[in-house]
Amino acid sequence: MPFFPRLAVLLGGLLLAAPLWAADVDPRSYGYPLSNPFEATIVTTPPELRPSLPANGDIDQADYKVRLRPEREFEVPENFWSVTKLGYRLAQQGNEAPLIFIIAGTGAHYSSNHSEFLKKLFYGAGYHVVQLSSPTSYDFMTAASRSATPGFSSDDADDLYRVMQAVRAQHPQLQVSEYHLTGYSLGALQAAFVSHLDETRRAFNFKRVLLLNPPVNVYTSISNLDRLVQTRVEGIDSTTNFYELMLGKLTRYFQAKGHIDLNEAMLYDFQHSEEQLSDEQMAMLIGAVFRFSAADIAFTSDLINRRGLITPVGHPIREGTSLTPYFKRALQCNFDCYIAEQLIPMWRARHDGGSLSQMVDQVSLYALEDYLKGSDKIAVMHNADDLILGRGDLGFLRRTLGERLTVYPLGGHCGNLNYRVNSDAMLEFFRG
Asked: Secretion signal: which residues (predicted)?
């Protein structure tokens, strides 16, 4: 298994003049209580403002595995053997029902917090639900990706499409009335490319596709998140690092509480205690999670493809091998490094690619502008204060989607997905 801590589980996962036809939600009537985008991104919605959801025990669900790349069983090291089959989760109704696929965000497993919330929301509304890991997760890269070098959106969409077809083939008894698709964060961008691919392959004929907080310009989003790691934080010097500072705050918080309980409700309460994080500390936490994801991708891609950039070619990686040296080396490689050393060379070799700017255009929503304009089944929900957006991104979405774009005034990056107002709007969209 990869060696990077899964801090993303705590996050879930990881800008305005408006034409009148875009559905910009009035800040005065919206009611979401967190005005700080960093705080919203980390703690999401206060529990009392979330919708009622079915309990896990009331959901007919199970985890399954599908074999897509049998050759990987002989290509990957021992510590990856457990993921040479791709896992996914299926929640099924007891009768014929629509089915919705959920694509997780950057580096996220199919059981991530946001995916679990969306599963419960749609299952409670009567849908079969399939949860898929992100193409940037180590398990998808190992078990499903043809190149094991995620980031070129059309390739990632092709891999996802094959997975969806394999999932359907594995459950021939499942009665499906129609197919829908959604994704959050990077998974939303990939959902758009999957929908575009389906227009020609017609395996699913998706009825509705909802993109939740997608990056518009992928490189802008990457740059925004990478910069957060460079935030200057008070209290961190040559003798105290960021993780020691965080551990001290959490220790004092749990001592005051008298017990340890790590969940989203705890994070919300933590941010309203004396130990709450400053804006700079929250920014660095978000950036650190993103950096771990980048390092995980770089390590996994390098190891599977035997590029020798992080793990020496021919050096055996076994169950007992110390991964600390590779951990340190991979953390030095941010997304710029991964793009330059692994993604662009792969793109040029497989697709006769050119410059970085050309690749950015091909992997971002710009590449689907005409399709997004002409496809009434696709909608986007985004936040005006989302950390991944850059100048002009919302303008592009407004021009491209018109009334199929909903812009919420608050919520940070995916922090308001589990807010009742947003949840109701998602269900209304899929109901038509």
From this structure: 1-22
